[in-house]
Predict the structure.
Amino acid sequence: MPSIDIDQLCVNTIRTLAMDAVQQANSGHPGTPMAMAPVAYALWQRHLRFDPNDPIWPDRDRFVLSMGHASMLLYSMLHLAAVKAVNPKYETLGQLSISLDDIKRFRQLDSRCAGHPEYRWASGVETTTGPLGQGVATSVGMAIAGKWLAAHFNRPGFDMFGYRVYALGGDGCLMEGISSEAASLAGHLKLDNLCWIYDNNRITIEGSTSLAFSEDVATRFIAYGWNVTRVGDANDLAMLDRAFDVAKTTPGRPTLIIVDSHIGFGAPTKQDSHAAHGEPLGEQEIKLTKRFYGWPEDAKFLVPDGVREHFAAGIGARGGKLRGEWIARFDAYKAKYPQEADALYRMQRRQLPEGWEKSLPSFPADAKGVAGRDASAKVLNAVAPAIPWLIGGSADLAPSTKTRLTFEGAGDFEAGTYAGRNFHFGIREHAMGAILNGMSLSKLRPYGSGFLIFSDYGRAPIRLAAIMELPVLYVFTHDSIGVGEDGPTHQPVEHLLSLRAIPGLITLRPGDANEVTEAWRVVLGLRHEPVAMVLSRQAMLTLDRTKYAPAAGLAKGGYVLADAAGGKPEVLLLGTGTEVALCVAAHEQLTKEGIRSRVVSLPSWELFDAQPQDYRDSVLPPSVTARVSVEQASAIGWERYVGSAGRIIGMRTFGASAPLKELQKKFGFEPDQVVAAAKQCLGRA
Ligand SMILES: Cc1ncc(C[n+]2csc(CCOP(=O)(O)OP(=O)(O)O)c2C)c(N)n1
Ligand SMILES: [Mg+2]
């Protein structure tokens, strides 16, 4: 090999690993890793404060590959920097996160090198990316978390947090609306620990960006309040260096670095073409490209001597030293601030402070009742003082969703006052979802709230939270046609069903105030599951728990709330949320008429389905086939609980604009109609 300088050798190693892996997989995206290799190299080797030996060090700089299709860029970096794997017990035992063998098996079953970077699957992947725009928006959540952590934990002489967040995105990330929402908020919040790098290659899948994208990106970001700088050639390591220095030293603003690049750099026929985007280069093109790089044409997956050593002497040595200093600082911090140190440690393991649940309230029986959202406000404000990192807010609906922390000292998270616990995401549900993911990835315990109807706007990041197994809580209120006069645009119908369809997401629709308490108890005890807590706007009767079963049954997802004498029902009434009380009213009426009914409160399908068969059978005895479900939401799906002989009282159309009482009558949500359905099932109509 002709002698080229070590920087170039490293950059070309990143490139050729990506080219070879995509070719071998016969699938993937070679062009962008080839173009962005110098950017990733300059950042990781010279700037990133990251210790490959401990990729979960709390104060590490974060690198987010928002253009997830360029995953081979990240895998090459993780491999060459020798990033170690972390096991589920948060231990590093010395194995590489990404072995050369993983790279050779890119996109194959069980390879750590999945098609797109998967958090939890490959250590060092800070967040799962692939849906464009999610990564950059998630990085804003990480930067927000960085600011909060610094404000909360740092003490004079003890900078426990000061990490920076870098996200690399392309045309697609910047076209997606979520990047606008997130960048707008990041600028507003003056997140100067955040840096986005924009791969301005003017190419997307269909061809030139001139087909659909002609805005002035720099001006757009300046308008958001960002610092914008340019690097005219992605291969210019010195200019890249300067740009990163500018980002690090510009106070009060996030930085956007616009990097002009050539997709498929060096490929003789595919450079600057969308042909370099989504398919292998081809053997011949690879040979010619390697010749252009001064690389042995026939070598595959070559890591030349000196490359690994160079990374070890750069990012490895710098990161190791920084982490060592941090650990020493943490030991001194622990001696001086034991409580804070304990909190910091627990957060990393997603544990809560001892005894947090002591202040969970209980609610007395009350015929007038309490709205789900109001009960939730009370529970949240009771437990939050004991869990300082339980923080969150709303997409401008906190007065309605009642998620504001109102106790002394809770404060607001605003530009410059970063210790506050109440967040204002603005009317940006999509970005809120991604930001919550970023906060959770930074080990905060975040919640975000809005109307259930608008959960659609934030659905993509909710899905990602489920894939990543992040304990993010969404508080969705105004959960049904119970919204009343606002009409069909504000009345969720299919939303609950669509959330139930997301694997791993737990939905919870508590049926009275005490079930709301139990819902919070369950949610806060989770470490790896996102939850959609679905709450009513209108009052729900608070059941007399001396007469009916304890609300603690909620933890099993479903439980017998009221039963027929001797526990031998002939008909089952299944309800969730506001419809639980309706089932109870129907049950009382049926009992008077001598019909033996059982009410099952079923606030969470997911938790119930996870119970052993014998428990589920004890709640829903297979021999009792007369069953009625009642839920002010899409009727689809209830067949699984009521069976073919059952009746489903649910929504089959959009709602309507009218006072609640009239809607309940129109759509069948009245005790008489539940009673009639029960009798129909029993053949006694
Ligand atoms: C939300 C979303 N929509 C569509 C896609 C499919 N997709 C993957 S890459 C891509 C083009 C991205 O272009 P750009 O960001 O410029 O990346 P480049 O081709 O320059 O690497 C598209 C449309 C996606 N991954 N995510
Ligand atoms: Mg592009």
Observations:
- Residues 511 and 577 are 4 Å apart (CA to CA).
